[in-house]
Amino acid sequence: MFRIRHLYLWGWFALAIGCGPTADLSIPRLPPRPVVWLNNWHPAKVSATRSEADQYLQKGDALKGMGMYDAAKEQYLAASNADPEFAFPMYQLACNYELAGQHDDAVLAFREAMARGFDDFPTAATDEELGRIRRRSDFQNDLQIIRTRYLIAARKHVGQPIAVRPETDKPPAGWPVILMLHGYGDTHLNYLDEAELWARQGFVAIVVPGSVPTHGDTFQWSLDSFETTHGDLQAIVHSQLLDGVVDLSKIYLLGFSQGALHAMLVTEAHPDKYAGVVALSPGGNMIQQLARPSLDSTKGAARIVFIHGEEEPHAPLVNIWARECGNAKWMFESQTHPGGHHFPDDWELRVPAIATFLLK
User: Fold this and answer.
1) Distance CA 55, CA 79 (A)
2) Which fold does the domain 10-26+45-156 belong to in CATH?
3) Which of 175, 196, 235, 268 has the most Cβ atoms closer than 10 angstroms to its Cβ?
4) Model confidence, pTM
């Protein structure tokens, strides 16, 4: 069993930052960084200790997701020992204990995460895995402390959109552009290979970090509004870097999971700005909005490609969107693939035909 390493002056700090019933616990809006070409992008260096801790953390998360709480605990402790300055493994250990019904141990782990400087406010503010910790009388003060830390630290973690240019000659009106929106708790950096795949189809492909930085270099999209996402995307395509490079009449979105949800909602609301969307397994807090699409053909007509795993419950949404797209004279195509919440195994073979459909 671990022990708390620091004496933490909870009450004094809470008073110092003004905790109380009127404390602001909203998720802050942080300005995005400018887009950069891939060949001008310099990835942040990750220490060997953090890299080792991340490996243990990922194993722990996988085991926790399968309900193997004892095995997950060992991975989280290994991550914490590998990098004592990394607070997130101890936070995940607290969640792990709560899921296992070990509340007292969960409280100790949460306190240790706080002592190590835990600052991932967007996660803590909404994470149901914290269980009974969320109902403790001091949790609101804890959240305000985490939010204050987040405001200080998160600006360093705001993601940078990265663009990949086709190797073909630029068309007179500019290349079409496709912006890629990752899933919840993921990073746009995992989509760089995807961007290069689409650049080979003749698109300027841009991987976009979620508008809400979380722990490490991972991100979320807003849980209650897609207009923040729309604002970030428009800032990218209208940036000085892309001026005269891309065709603003051919802006497409590709999203997975929470990113797919935002991509569809943004396109539905602004078909005058986005020519189409490729949505893979949309999901997230606002998923119910997809069941009530309102497509305005007077504003524009986008092309929709809706893809999901055969084991996912997306068929009713596909039927709704097929009907509404038909009524609004939007072009709609649906695809399925074996399995569940992931990209199709034959994705690279599907992309050329999807690209052709978008550009028709």
Assistant:
1) 8
2) 1.25.40
3) 268
4) 0.88
